[in-house]
């Protein structure tokens, strides 16, 4: 890799045209799916004529993916030991959802990596000197907000790589009606909630905000220590974002209130399915009734799934002899190969062109983990899904697929051969093809709606570059305290007035009754 100064100068020489803006995309290697999304953003901006640098702090040293084919890549290694240790200790089947202590531990790991990054802030000086016009960062890691401000970039665009995260809504002032909008993180609720469900939803929201304050306090302390005691809180920097691009689609996601500065760009960079190369072209011709794909993403390796569950999964696949199964496994999973030796309708692969396979006409269903990139790809391709969520937003994503009628959710604590068999039979044996028809309708709505994701993204980005920070889109609610925002003072005054009125009527009635009875006694 070229030295950073040489690389940035080289970019400047090869750029053609004077309207190109210098754009920084901050993309920590927390997971491959996030890197892929940020890489798509970078590539779309390059195609739009901009000078784009994709900065990847290596939180996970095992992730070598860049995500972009067109942007200049700058990586900073040697940061992620604390993050990697925290992820290694994660027990994916230990509980239904992550506890508050596990989530706090995740925030600790992120803050530790941020501290390691800023301890080497001199290595960022060349980025600082390059004079970026605008910067993008995603919502998972608030360290990026501080880094961007440290680099002197005041024009910032936020990316929500999931549906509008609760903490994103909190910092931007997006209303979150908890009576019908389920919390995004670690929450297995749909839109129809009972009294207890709504109470549970409120509790989940409060936990998210408490954890968020804890994490952002620690991250802000990193910048106050390494840069200046007057460095702003990263929550304040977040609230000053000109826009928030949301990696979701209005026709897929659960409907909720949004602001003018929230722009849906779900499906960005997902083009038409390309013809498959070998061995996948041949694999897709197997199975008399079609092919079923299974991939649980990159954060949950198949080697971490208990052996008895994997055995049950493959035995379940053997019962669907008319279908062929392509299953993605990780390189450390040496046991699954022996489990499928006598199951002829299963092929194991360590990599696959997922989006292109989802677009193949012989694909019948997609068994996935509920990650939103995969869910979006399935929705765009019109493929029914069986979702097994493991953490974070995946629970709500799985419920979204159910809510839209093209998927079935299986909780990880119930995940076994029997539950998977039942779900697959519901999808592939439905005489009315309800799941497939719902998937096809969602696909049509997303693909044919006015204004493509790329159009929205490029036009709004150019608008921000041309006009600077869009303070006009900031909501006044951000400046209100909790009492004023919820009109609790008005409600309290109204209740006091009602109470005083009732009390006054009561006293007057009581006095009137006494006078009447006193008069009667005198007459008698």
Automatic annotation (TrEMBL):
It is a single-pass membrane protein. Its main location: membrane. It is an enzyme of class 2 (transferase). Residues 1-20 form the signal peptide. GO terms for molecular function: glucuronosyltransferase activity. The keyword Secreted does not apply. Belongs to the UDP-glycosyltransferase family. This is UDP-glucuronosyltransferase. It comes from Steinernema hermaphroditum.
